[in-house]
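FAQ: What does the model actually see?

It sees only this:
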Amino acid sequence: MMNYPMTLAAALLVLSGASAHAQLGGSGSSPVFVESDRLDGFQADGRAVYTGNVRATQGESQLTTDKLTAVCSRVAPAADQAADAASCEEIRSLIAENNVLFTAPRLQIKGDRAEYDYASDTITITGDVIMRRESEAVIRGKKVVYQVSAGLASISSSGDRVQAILQPQSRSNAPQPAPAQPPARPN
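And it is asked to produce this:
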């Protein structure tokens, strides 16, 4: 295990911005900014592990957790380089463990573990999952698969039932008919 300075690991994540895929918030090529208490780099494995008060932000989306592992695809080293000199080409996935909270505009998903797959632009959150859509709905289950760019979610509960609380539109916000005018009185 090697401890890399924050700048090297941050560079690993910024490389993901060069990818053609949508990312953490579907915000295209904007970089992912990661903050944590500690960073351990495993160059031979193509992983960077952030621990302690981790926050990954991209555009308007944010992922907070106790532990975040960034896994990159590897580029083979040149023939004259050592095997462990392989470099990180782009980020393949982000894996969050413990106290996971994914937030995007109008959406929050809380769970125990999350995996963001860059190729499919999908985040899968498992455990005791709570998904909140502003004040419109709260849904509980065991697994949420959220397609970030499309804004589509699939919620399951592996043997249990999915639970939802839906908030209907307030009638006070609905358009009200104009009050009836009293009939004209004869003079």
